Each structure stands twice: as structure tokens, then as C-alpha cells.
Amino acid sequence: MPNNNEDTTQEVTPGQAQLDSSITQKINYLQTLQSALHDHDDRQIYELIDKTRYEREVKKSRSTTKTQELADLVADDHEQLSHYLSEKLIDYLGQTYPFFYYDEVKDGEFDIYFGNWWDRRKFGKLDVLNVAFKFDETEYNKLKRAFELDALNQRYNTENIADITANSAELQKLIEGQDERDHEKEKLRQQLKEVSQKSTLPWDSGKVKEERQGIVDQLSKLADDDEEAINANKKIKENDEKILSLSKEDTILTYEKQSIQQKFEDFSHFESHNQSLYTDYLTNLIGKGQVKADD
Amino acid sequence: MINENDPSTLSTSGRLLSYNNAVKEGLKTGQQFTELMDQLINTKDPKKLVEAAQTLSVFELDSDYVTFPHQYNNADYYLIFMSRLLELHDQGEAITLESHEDDQHLTQQIAALGDLGVFAFVGANDSNGGVYYQDRVTNETLFYLNLSRRMMRFNSSAITKLFVETYADKIEKDQLLTATDLLIAFGQALKTDFGFDVDFNLLDTNNNEFYEFATSNLGSEVVDKLFVAAAQENYMLKHDKDGAVLELAPDLTLKIASHNANGGAAWGLYVTDKDQSVSWFKVLLEYPFLRKWYLENIGDLQIRSDSLVF
């Protein structure tokens, strides 16, 4: 009998054994992932899709298990995975960051909006799989600057608005000075006429010429001012539009700043919270898992 | 042949008879007129009141043989009608009707407005008997009224000019509200007593009233202006699926929307409060920053009135 067996059973080569183990490992991986999905065990899923980070940042262990290849098995499922994981994550974020709103622009991809006020800013994206905010750099830096300026009792566009306002005031003066300029021009033209009519004695001609040039120069300066005054209303209107958009930006930044201050007191706390988001969230999931297990 | 219309064919007694008949007819018309006046002035029945007003508004008192030197204008009967209808609704005290004997016409004053505003009806020249209720001082027409078509339309532009701009710094807000409440009461009476179709426009307090802006394409900078102005007064203009929302008080919200109540594309406002007692007009009187915003952008924001009559 043993002989018969020897005939039918091939000997397992080391290569086959390795292959077998590798497949088993993959099957195990996928099965674990699947049951985690069935059990809504998001913590387990996060651990499976990035074991290295999980070990390092949650378990605080230095072991560097090579598991990336396994995680690659579901690389083409990331959109759906992200969509699935977003639900609990966004719930959690709602408590710490009540001022962020998310718009799923396509499966698993989320835009972040800051606030619920008029024309709130698109502030970046939410990276669900990595539990991280990817803030729009320009918008983020504006907010950061707004916090810095707050210490000086200034708003982001205070200086800018002051400059434009001053410019408008100049332009307004120019418009209001029209009558005075007209009067002045009339006087100068009269003078010019008088100078021209003066009998020009040879020895006076240089002086007369000079006098005449002086009047012409003044007239041309006034003509320039007139020209500018004609366009002034349009410019003032443009300035008003600029001021409006800058004031709006200041208002938005103020709302953003207040939102952060209410929750984090200052910007640095906000930043440090963002940095430890992954650890905080997974720790929170572990806590919830324990509560569940205790039930 | 005797032709009654051709006096030359008649004998003297025939002519006298014909003359007498014509005078009788004229007197009968006059008699009819005084009966209608009695009815207009005395009746307690709203149906009879509107009937008299309607007949008098097109009544021709003069005939070839009988003319009356002292006559009111046809539109004046609307004023009597308005005063009487308000009287039947216990608001008679709120207006005074004045008769100007020298040139025989009537005007009306709204008690709450004091000396501001002298009102009268003027024909709308729209060939179907419509009249405008007009302030003689500014010539602003507050509403259009048509008894035969049973309709009334308020004019948002005139209400804004008179009550929000011209009168606002001359009398107390409460007085302004009393005055507009009176006009609303008149419209309500027309609605409930005679089934009129009334557009209260910006005076309407219903939550589902859509106050439609003049512009059909509201520029975002207009909303930006409100956003900034509201923030300065510590109100936050909030993002909304269909536009923007401003919570003015725990139970009072103003919504800027890009759809009317039937879902059609249009820009306008909704004012929502639990008791449905607040109109856009009241909001304008109550909140200076909204009034400023509305008036500064009136070209875009003017609430539309019925374009058939305004």
C-alpha cells in the first residue's frame, strides 16, 4: 500500500512549499480583510492596509514587517475602501473638527470645505486611507498668516484695504477739484493771452518766452489731472470691487480663525492635532472595539 | 311722418312732450345716482357696497337735458368705497376722507402717517376699469385695484420708496407698520368679502411667499456685500444648497434662493417665521443693514410687481 501512495503523491519541492505558503498568506490576508469588512472592524482594516504604519504609530513598535505586497492585493479597491472607511472617520472628525464639511466628489474622494458660511473655501482633500488632511497650501497659509496678524490686531487684508481706500480718496479729490481746475485753467489762458499780446521788446523776449512756457506747463498739468478725473469714477468702482473681495476674504478668515480658536484655542494646537490624527483615530477605534468586546 | 328724434317733424306739444321725457330720463338718472350714493354711504352689507362702487365708478350722471354742476370724479367713488369697507371692518378711524369743495374731489389721509401722504385714486387708462391708489405728493402708486376683475396688486417699488425711504426718518417705525397694516387690511377685506385675487407683494407675511428680485441672474458680489455687512453686525450669512441663509433671530430666517416656490429658476427671498407674521417689508424696517443692502442694490434686488399693471 505505501508504494501506491508514493506513485500518486508528488514530492513537494521547496519552491512549491514557498508558493503554497505565499498563497496561503494571501488567502489569509484577504480573508481577514473580508471578515473585518463584514464585522465593520475598521481598525483591523487600517492595520491590514498599512501594517508598517500601524505598528509604528499605534503599537509604537519598531518591527518592520514586510506586508506591503499583501496590501497591494487590494490596491485597485482603494476607491471603494476609502468610500467605506469614510463613514466612521467623518463621524469621528465631526467631533474634533466640527467646522469641516466633506463633499464626496467621486467614490472615496472627498473635498474639504471650511465652514458652513456663504462662499466658504474649499480647503483641500481628505485622505481617508491615510487618515490625513491634505490642505490646499495657499488657503492654509492664508489662515496661518491670519493667526499671526491677529496678534497685531490686524486682519489679513487690513493694509491692502487701507491702501486702496487711500487711493480712492485721492481720486475722489481729483473729481471734486474739477471746478477749481476749470477756474484755474481759465485764469491761465487769460494770462497766456495777455503775455502773447505784450509788445515783445527784443530784450524782453527771453523772459516772455519763459513766462509763457511756465503757463503752458501748468495748463498741461491741469489737463493731465482732468484726464485722470475722467477715469476716476471707473477706478473708484474698481477699487470698491477690490475692497469688497478683500473684506469678504477677511470675513471668511475671521470665521475660520474663530472656528479653530473655539475648538483648539490656537493654531499650533490645531496643527499638532492634525499631525497625530492617524494615531488618535486608531486609538479611538481600539477603545471602541474594547467597549464592544466588553458588552 | 312724425319722427321723435327730429323736432322739426313734431308739433309744439309733441316737442314739449319729447323735451319733458328727456328731462324725466335725466332726473331718473340723477335719482338712480342718489340711490347708489345712499347705498355707497350707508349700507352695512359689503356685497351691496362693492356693487354701488362698481356701478358708480362708470356712472354717467349727465344727460343731454340734465347736467349736474357739482360732481365727483369717477375715481373718487373708489375712495369712498375703501373708507366704507375699512369702516365695516372696524378700521374706519384709521383713515380720513376729505372733500375739497372748490374743485369737487376727494382725498384720503392715513391717520398713522399724519400729514405725510395725500391719497386718491386715479384711472389706470387700461380700458378695463382699473385704478391706481396714488400719493398726490410724490405721485407714487401704492397699489392697483380693479373691481370688475376682482384683483388688487401692490407695487413694491412705491412701497419701498415711500415707506422705506421717504417716510422712514420722518415717523416712527410703528406708525409705518400701522399704515401698511391698514392697506393690508383693505386687501384682506377684498379677499375675504369678495374673493379678490390680491398680491400683497413685499407686504406678504406668508412663509412660502417668494419675493422675486428684479434680476433673474443675481451676481455673487451682491450676496458678498450682504455677507460682509451681516458679519459686521454679528450675523453669519450661511451657505445653503440653493443660495444663502441668514438667521436673524431664533425664529426668523431670511433665505436667498435661486428657485421660486414652484421650483422654477428665479432669484429671490423667503422670510420664514413660526407665526408667519413677518414680511420682507417688516424685515427692511427692522434691520438697518438689510435696508442699506437692499436700497444700495435696488436695481438688482427690487421685488418684482405684477408687470401687467406696473
Automatic annotation (TrEMBL), chain A:
The keyword Hydrolase applies. GO terms for molecular function: exonuclease activity. Keywords: Exonuclease, Hydrolase, Nuclease. This is Exonuclease SbcC. It comes from Secundilactobacillus silagei JCM 19001.
From TrEMBL, chain B:
It comes from the Bacteria. This is Uncharacterized protein. It comes from Secundilactobacillus silagei JCM 19001.
